[in-house]
Amino acid sequence: MSDWKDICSAKKKAQLASIPPEWIIQMPPKSQTNVMNVPQDCGLLTARELQITETTDVETLLKKLHSSEWSSVEVTTAFYKRSIIAQQLTNCLTEIFVERALQRARDLDEILKKTGKIVGPLHGLPISLKDQFTMKGLETVMGYAAWVGKYAELDCVIVEILYECGAVPFVRTNVPQTLMWGETHNHVFGRTTNPYNRKLTPGGSSGGEGALLAIKGSPLGVGTDVGGSLRIPSAFCGLYTLRPSYERLPYFGAVNALEGQESISSVIGPMTNSMSGVKIFTKAIIDAKPWTKDPLVLRKEWSEEAYRLSEHGGGKSLCFGMLWDNGVVRPHPPLQRAMEITKAALEAAGHKVIDWEPHRHLEIYKNAETIFVADGGHDYRAQCELSGEPVIQTMAPEEEAHESELSEPFVKYLVGEPEHRSAYGLWQLHKEKRELRKSHLDHWNRTVERTGTGRPIDAIISPAVAYTAVPHGLNTDSFYTTLCNALDLTTSVFPVTFVDTKIDKPQPPHAFHNHEDEAIFKLYSTDLFSGCPVGLQLIGGSQEEEAVIAMTEIIDNALRVYKA
Amino acid sequence: MSDWKDICSAKKKAQLASIPPEWIIQMPPKSQTNVMNVPQDCGLLTARELQITETTDVETLLKKLHSSEWSSVEVTTAFYKRSIIAQQLTNCLTEIFVERALQRARDLDEILKKTGKIVGPLHGLPISLKDQFTMKGLETVMGYAAWVGKYAELDCVIVEILYECGAVPFVRTNVPQTLMWGETHNHVFGRTTNPYNRKLTPGGSSGGEGALLAIKGSPLGVGTDVGGSLRIPSAFCGLYTLRPSYERLPYFGAVNALEGQESISSVIGPMTNSMSGVKIFTKAIIDAKPWTKDPLVLRKEWSEEAYRLSEHGGGKSLCFGMLWDNGVVRPHPPLQRAMEITKAALEAAGHKVIDWEPHRHLEIYKNAETIFVADGGHDYRAQCELSGEPVIQTMAPEEEAHESELSEPFVKYLVGEPEHRSAYGLWQLHKEKRELRKSHLDHWNRTVERTGTGRPIDAIISPAVAYTAVPHGLNTDSFYTTLCNALDLTTSVFPVTFVDTKIDKPQPPHAFHNHEDEAIFKLYSTDLFSGCPVGLQLIGGSQEEEAVIAMTEIIDNALRVYKA
């Protein structure tokens, strides 16, 4: 019975058993790739539950919760039911604990009723959590067969703070084995699909969150990002996110891949359907003084001054640098159109957009990717060996995989076989990283000559990925995202538009940057991507959470006005 | 001629030649161990130059400079002459560049005269720099024969900012080979001695600064600290210092030992004879927004609110934890008396002092020391091999070394032979480190039950070293300092008193913690330490520069009132 396959199927069976039978829906045919309308159509949700779950603005949700217009029990029930629909459609969940979450919601309703006071800024709000955030008494599997049955003795610090803030953690969400993929599949829980098109990946590694939030099965989720894991699924699923700087938000007590790797720290951040969700979550966590609980977190209060863009001319007339093409992979036509829309919208709103010249992009990427495999893969091999499960070599499905032009991802060509470095070898990579960070900062500062604002550019706008969601197994680009991890740049993702095959026509071939660029160019075929969300990144400086949120709000508003 | 000994003696000869011959003094006899009075007695300094250099309060110095009461040229000349006296007495300098510094001072005087405006907050102030801070066009030897002739092409960021602030970098100061010693000796420049007693070490690795500042050959110096290198010489030489948190002040461009080691980052900080010097320097550098030049520096403005102790009850009634004995080495009697004086002074000023229970002190120390040698010594061996100079095995002088009871420092017993770790092995040390930091933070927070203030203790007061300056070769204790590097706790050092053999009598033996504790106990013999300065550490939280400065000012004032 200790065969890893048995462990996985037993866990999967237990997961199924944790779903209230009355929440099992009639499944749409497998051939129905877009399942975004199922929650409205399947009949499980009442009209009021549909109204609640369609309230994507977190500020509005919280107002209704805090005024007792909606109780936490009904909000939690509504999102729970919808998350279970999402689970049946996209396989996005890991831990399901309905009664525990509802009891928490009942307790909060009771307190509000009795005292007239909310417990904290997130009072009553259901929050989904990537399968890294340990909760006392629950398993934390994180995609490894060997971790099944590993019950947490403590809440991790972010969960502890979420409870203090009045939140209702209510589901945990799927991840890829090793966490180091931009897709979401593992042997325990299987593959998560994209509700816009189930033949496509929702991205990863916070891909369970991506699929769940896209279908509005949660108002706000918490994910992590070491190379793009918040931003790739946010871009592929039409969401907002923030990749904060290293150690701004508390990671302590959460499990992780490559634990102890501190050269390029993984960070936690929100994923949600509104900028208000991004701001409210980030401010709530920082206002809870996480440095009093997690010794690695920076003692840096939320700054309303920074949020008012005091270092960016008060936000009146910003200048952005547009990264049209990073010189590694040229963005697909929908991404190019998204950048053009954003530029036009910002200009219409009185801001300026100049070209951003990529600076040593490949060198920075290579340094980061070399650091990520500096243990020669020892960490993930060791976790797999514990149960005997094989290390997954490709995210492509065994059946019906989309054929790819790409024989070997460019990163493998660039970095070569993972080499287990010595500590001294790792220090040399750090020296190189420091020099690259300085060089990039100086390059950024030199834009002061071109902005006309008296400041360097206020932020970079860039694709998060060169394409929209791709078929399972084909997401190889983390070139646009990893830059920000390597340089520790605060970065958001915001949705701009959807792929429109009538407008986003294939372009003639360009002089390809490399073999992956060529394969990705060839992948663009409008019938694959139709209707997929298109998102972009906003890249600010290190520890600029407040300013990046404010600038993303400015862009978001400009886009709304422009499109209206 | 490329024999390392020839390189060293040629460099030493060039150094001597860079001293204006008229500044060569009549040396006191070698038997005169205390040379603190030589600057007053030797006749090189005019009465006005004596007055200038005896002005140990940096705020006063700056007022006189900024009001043009004293010109930068005369202040720089006065300190330069006195630094050259210090050099002849204690061998504390490396690079000497009189004309360059005086030209800078002339330029500043000119600007002030012409415009009526100061260039920046440090206008006109001579500042000494540890031999890591590269200056364009000057060599940076850092104690390695192989680095002789290595001329810097750029100023490091801290020097760049010091220039922007109007400072006059005027000498560079000696360090030990490898920087990883708490004393100061290398093959190029030789040994630096303590002006209070030349048979004793000034400490290290910022020991050149220590000796220079003790004898008032500089009003303010900049050193670095990865395990105690600012604090050990400050304690041994009667100075004030601040060990800031990782990445609060800019290190970029400075050379270093173990470059690329980022597990426990080395930090830069001021050393000086006044708390005003510590505050003015720290605030000036942070106000210059160093994160716009050094990508690793935290974007964290100087906070007047934190300086007013907003998180410490406004500083009205603080509660300190006193670390009487860390359980590794018991402090010598003068240190115990210093702690008793400080406790009494604080209580007299309306504050509270409770006992601090050390928490996993040795585990934390061992983790840090293991990280420091995670390259198996590869880094320093490689630097020595470049020239063929041997790696220094002991700081004891070849002649007239003080006999020691200690056959092997406890750290060697604890850590064993340096083992070159793998990257994965280093990550495991990081995991251990994180757990230790969390455990120590929780321990700190639990003091809320004992303080009576509603807060955990505001800071810890502790020895910096278990003893005052010791004979060359005998400084083995970094147990009290390394704790703060490992946990990234903001820490100051402040002087309390001097060893008084009439009061500081040897104690009866205690139950020794270990063999080093026993040897250190036996070392205490009042004739060795008579008249030596006794300093203590104030240990605050991470990124608490403002609060630690404010609390040290409170202690400093309380001591002044108490002693009066």
From TrEMBL, chains A, B:
Protein name: amidase
Keyword Hydrolase attached: yes
EC number per UniProt: 3.5.1.4
Protein family (similarity comment): Belongs to the amidase family.
Protein keywords: Hydrolase
Pfam family, one: Amidase
Organism, as annotated: Collybia nuda
Residues at the catalytic site: K130, S205, S229
Entry keyword Repeat: no
Domain Amidase positions: 74-548
Enzyme class: hydrolase
SUPFAM superfamilies, per the entry: Amidase signature (AS) enzymes
GO molecular function: amidase activity
Residues involved in substrate binding: L179, S205, V226, G227, G228, S229
Domain of life: Eukaryota
Database matches in InterPro entries: Amidase_CS, Amidase_dom, AS_sf
PROSITE patterns xref list: AMIDASES
